[in-house]
Amino acid sequence: MPNAILASRRGVFAALACGCAAAAGLGRGSAFAASPAASTSVSADEALSRLKSGNAAFVGGESCTPAGGHGHIAPLAAGQAPFAVVVGCSDSRTPPEHLFDGKLGELFIVRVAGNTVDHTALGSIEYGVAVLGAPLVLVLGHSGCGAVEAATKVVTKGATYPGSIGQMVEPIVPAVRKAQGMKGDLMANAVRTNVELVLEQIAAASPLVAQARDAGKVRLAGAVYDLASGKVAFLD
Ligand SMILES: [Zn+2]
């Protein structure tokens, strides 16, 4: 038996052994691209549905670490066709592949503390949408975000930070100021508002993404991950 097939079968058996049909390629569809030019056929609605079912699997303890092994890795060398771009926080507790039970080649991820977007991040998003053909851009905030908390202290206590941390926090300050006028918990409101403002910023700063959205080729969505429950709440 060729090694690739053997490795692939081993991967399937390993995935089945841990009770994860999706990781064995038996549940949600495969993202393997036949060529670099072949983008995903997954629609925006299907992409959102996959993220939701993936998070349900994560919360339920049914997800697996994406399978490795030659049979899973090598086919993706020919190209990638991710079904979503995820803009998330650097927080070590929020890796999108885990939260959404994502496999290799499925999620194109931009991560920076506070899930904000600068020019480099915007270019990465545009690459995911325009070049790779991802039909969904998800901005993902999370509860207890240290970057948002730092921005809150800038606004409420005049806090300052060493090095470049202040510049990292600065883009979140407008969300905190807006959240100050809302009822409820300031931190929770600031996290959600930051997601909403980043979504607006992406559309405003990137004609490429805005045009793709208006043409129905990409959907922009926001969500907040809860550290304690593991659940992702979608804002739409
Ligand atoms: Zn964070």
From TrEMBL:
Q: Does the keyword Metal-binding apply?
A: yes
- In this chain, Zn(2+) is annotated as bound at C89, D91, H142, C145
Cofactor or coenzyme needed: Zn(2+)
| Record note on cofactor | Binds 1 zinc ion per subunit.
Signal peptide positions on this chain: 1-33
Q: Which UniProt keywords apply?
A: Metal-binding, Signal, Zinc
SMART domains in UniProt? Pro_CA (SM00947)
Pfam families, per the entry: Pro_CA
Q: Does the keyword ATP-binding apply?
A: no
Q: Which GO terms describe its molecular function?
A: carbonate dehydratase activity; zinc ion binding
- What family does this belong to? Belongs to the beta-class carbonic anhydrase family.
Tell me the protein's name. Carbonic anhydrase
Q: Which organism is it from?
A: Ancylobacter novellus (strain ATCC 8093 / DSM 506 / JCM 20403 / CCM 1077 / IAM 12100 / NBRC 12443 / NCIMB 10456) (Starkeya novella)
